[in-house]
Write a structure and sequence with these properties.
Chain lengths: ~290, ~525
């Protein structure tokens, strides 16, 4: 049981990293559906870098860096060029899928390094993840920068009139978000599942994307959702553990998505909007063209 | 700190001066050699019709546009505004008519947004104390923790004013400050404006009509017409008539000839009709009235008193909660919109750009939107484009729509021309019931006259016309019957001939109790 808890919490942590990255970007109005691609890049390049250098730190940094680069790329396409963010995000996913398969193929197999030691019985990333949730919450509710990011995602024209540089704020958010996605991938490939294989991420990026909508853009709800989704995933690996003979693992894996759908239905109801307002950043997915 | 320019100003000092401001757009001279002076503590209204160059001037003052010629002086120093930020830093604040607020954020977050003094880690306690002091000083009542989407229009305006004041504005530009307000709110706002001017603030309201407001508050008035300053007046020396004359360039009290048409059969019968607003409350409460052939029935009211919902309920765009609607004796309470069109209803919506037309449709397709169900134009489900084009071109010629051709997209037409096109499309179907919702809103005087004459022509053709308008004079001069609407109720049905303006005005504001009834 302890094994199950630690594994599922580590999965939750990886969802948390990636989803927080997506959340920060979305709060600034930039939708990045290419989370899966960014994570695949982070996982594969991080894996290779660590194997070549024998250093986990370098592996993680490479994941961070490639994530930042992809964030910049996505930002250039959707902020500077004002392109369709979904198209750019899908591009990142498809390129990520294809290119990492090609690059990673010769490295198929286990990482072959001593595992990252646990801290108080849990992966050190779990603690980092909780800190990150705290930091994100602080950023958005207590700081001027957070308020600026939120305004840019809600109504860039208003932000502009208030003297905020919309493009800069969005670049900042989308790059920071990309870094977290790349890092999430690297943690996956170096710690959670350190055996490189074709498409070894199996859709985690999409779960992270769904998690952001599930969280209604609130970091604490996101953490809760990540714990839930992490447990779901872990169950899907061995469903017979709890409910023998009930539902296949593949059906279990759809559960996070079903839950997210239900939340989305609830959020779009008249009652919800009348009571809570629209949780979704109003300018999400819309390019801002000055003037 | 550039704001220091205005820090030591005294009452009566010149705070802002425009010299020879000129701005050209392709084919238009929007501002032509405009000179303008503002003093501390002065309320100086700028008056002009749509297209007189007000918005251009306002945008130049706030750094959204740069003038082609001319100079701006703030506190005696020459300045250039490259962006709104420059203007804000010089102590200019702007209260936009289309509110510039983040709806999902709280009032206080909106006020401190982008303010350098807010600190890296938001110091809301201090900001709150300062904002509350401002509220007390000028009599603003607004909940700082409410989300902006929860606020009424008037409160949103207060948030914008507070935002400017908190940023240290010494010159406050107000764009149509009373256009969205009910009379009691207007009264409060005017008192606050007065109080601010006592504190050496210079206030520039930009106003399109609402002339009594100008007379009630301002010290001086500058009138713009066709991009030029046509008059600079002391308010004490002007009257509504004299201001209107300067604005329009001719005597305005053009009397429309009331046409006597024999009253025919009842066309629209509304019995005890109720409908809800988008936010779920009852917006129309038990309205009953009848419109006959050959008469204009006018509904007068301040915006937001249920007129919009009434129009939508009658045209099938909004669910009827209670009551009955009969068109030529047939019950259509829950009939779909197309069925109503086919039974002889014609609708001119108030939102001509979003409901009346599709911006990217050509004028041919715009006309087709009322003909797609007509088998003469769409035989066997195929559009007979040659025929629709012919019709469109005929309508363009008949209604004098200024456009290079029928292929032009709706978005490229000016407001007046688009309205003519919509009117042409609707009237060409010879509706038996014409519902015109704010048909002249935002049009210039020429287009207003055109539209009003078309309504009279429809009446002469024995159509029943339901006119919904916020312009009391329009309702009074056109209608055979006038029904003032207040908070979803019709406050009475009066004969248009001989109805007193004051009487209808009082009913529109909820009768004698109106002053206290609204918060």
């Amino acid at each position: 049981m302890w094994e199950f808890a630690t594994r599922s919490l580590e999965a939750s942590t990886i969802f948390t990293f990636a989803a927080l990255g997506e959340l920060i970007g979305q709060r600034s109005g930039i939708l990045n559906v290419g989370v899966e691609g960014a994570m695949l890049f982070g996982a594969t390049l991080g894996f290779i870098a660590a194997q070549l250098t024998g250093s986990y730190l370098i592996g993680l940094l490479v994941g961070l860096a490639i994530g930042a680069l992809l964030g910049l790329l996505h930002g250039f396409f959707s902020i500077t060029l004002g392109g369709d963010q979904v198209v750019s995000g899908m591009g990142i996913w498809i390129v990520g899928f294809g290119l990492t398969t090609y690059i990673g193929n010769p490295y198929t197999g286990p990482l072959g390094m001593a595992r990252i030691p646990n801290v108080f019985g849990l992966s050190p990333f779990v603690y980092l993840g909780i800190l990150l949730v705290l930091a994100t919450w602080f950023l958005f509710s207590k700081t001027s920068l957070g308020l600026r990011i939120r305004s840019v995602g809600e109504n860039p024209a208003v932000a502009e009139v208030s003297g905020i540089d919309v493009a800069r704020t969005r670049y900042f958010s989308v790059i920071l978000g990309g870094m977290l996605m790349g890092l999430a991938g690297a943690i996956y490939g170096l710690s959670y599942n350190p055996v490189w294989n074709y498409n070894f991420l199996m859709g985690w990026g999409f779960i992270a994307l769904a998690l952001v909508f599930f969280s209604m853009w609130n970091p604490w709800l996101l953490l809760g959702g990540a714990i839930l989704f992490g447990a779901m995933w872990q169950l899907s690996l061995s469903p017979e553990l709890v409910l023998p003979g009930f539902l296949s693992r593949y059906l279990w894996r759809t559960v996070p998505f079903v839950i997210t759908l239900l939340v989305l239905f609830a959020m779009s109801s008249k009652w919800f909007r009348g009571r809570w307002g629209a949780a979704k950043p109003a300018a999400l997915g819309e390019p801002y063209i000055k003037g | 700190m550039p704001q220091a320019i205005l820090s030591g100003i005294k009452r009566g000092d010149v705070v802002l001066e425009l010299r020879g401001i000129t701005k050209r757009f392709p084919g238009v001279l929007a501002n032509d050699q405009i000179d303008f002076t503002m003093r501390a503590g002065e309320i100086h209204a700028i008056l002009g019709e749509n297209g007189a160059g007000k918005s251009t001037l306002m945008n130049i003052l706030f750094g959204l546009l740069q003038p082609d010629e001319g100079e701006i002086y703030v506190g005696g120093q020459k300045v250039t505004f490259r962006s709104p930020l420059d203007a804000i830093e010089m102590g200019i604040g702007m209260v936009h008519q289309n509110r510039k607020l983040v709806l999902a954020h709280s009032v206080i977050e909106n006020i401190v947004l982008g303010h350098p003094r807010a600190g890296k880690i938001l110091n809301l306690t201090q900001a709150r104390a300062e904002i509350e002091a401002l509220c007390r000083r000028y009599g603003f009542a607004v909940d700082l923790d409410a989300k902006v989407w929860q606020l009424a229009e008037g409160e949103k305006q207060l948030v914008e004013i507070l935002k400017s004041l908190y940023r240290g504005a010494k010159i406050l530009i107000l764009d149509e400050p009373t256009s969205a307000l009910a009379p009691p709110e207007t009264k409060k706002l005017l008192a606050s404006i007065e109080a601010m001017s006592q504190d050496e603030l210079a206030i520039v309201p930009f106003i399109t009509h609402k002339l009594p407001i100008v007379l009630a508050t301002s010290h001086r008035v500058t009138v713009l017409r066709q991009g030029r300053v046509t008059a600079r007046l002391e308010t004490v020396h002007s009257t509504e008539q004299s201001l209107a004359k300067e604005m329009v360039g001719r005597e305005v009290i053009f009397r429309l000839d009331r046409v006597a048409v024999a009253r025919g059969e009842p066309v629209l019968q509304v019995q005890n009709l109720s409908a809800r607003s988008d936010r779920g409350f009852m917006a129309v409460k038990g309205a009953s009235f009848t419109v006959h052939e050959g008469e204009i029935f006018g509904i007068a009211g301040v915006s937001g008193n249920g007129q919009q919902e009434l129009a939508e309920a009658l045209t099938g765009l909004r669910k009827v909660e209670e009551g009955k609607v009969l068109l030529k004796g047939e019950e259509i309470t829950h009939a779909p919109a197309r069925r109503r069109w086919q039974r002889g209803l014609g609708y001119i919506p108030s939102e001509r750009n979003t409901v009346g037309s599709i911006a990217d449709f050509s004028l041919i397709d715009t006309v087709l939107m009322n003909y797609y169900f007509d088998h003469d134009y769409t035989p066997r489900g195929l559009v007979d484009y040659a025929r629709v084009r012919q019709l469109t071109e005929d309508l363009i010629a008949e209604y004098g729509v200024a456009t290079p051709g029928a292929e032009v997209k709706a978005r490229n037409l000016s407001g007046g021309n688009l309205q003519k096109m919509i009117l042409a499309r609707v009237l060409s179907r010879k509706p038996r019931l014409l519902i015109a919702n704010l048909p002249t809103q935002g049009l210039d005087v020429g287009a207003i006259e055109f539209v009003q004459n078309k309504l009279i022509a429809a009446k002469r053709d024995k159509a029943a016309v339901l006119l919904i308008s916020e312009d009391l004079d329009e309702v009074l001069s056109l209608s055979d019957w006038v029904a003032p609407m207040y908070e979803g109720e019709l406050m009475g049905i009066l004969p248009g001939e001989g109805a007193l303006r004051e009487h209808v005005g009082v009913l529109m504001a909820g009768g004698a109790k109106g002053e206290e009834a609204t918060p």
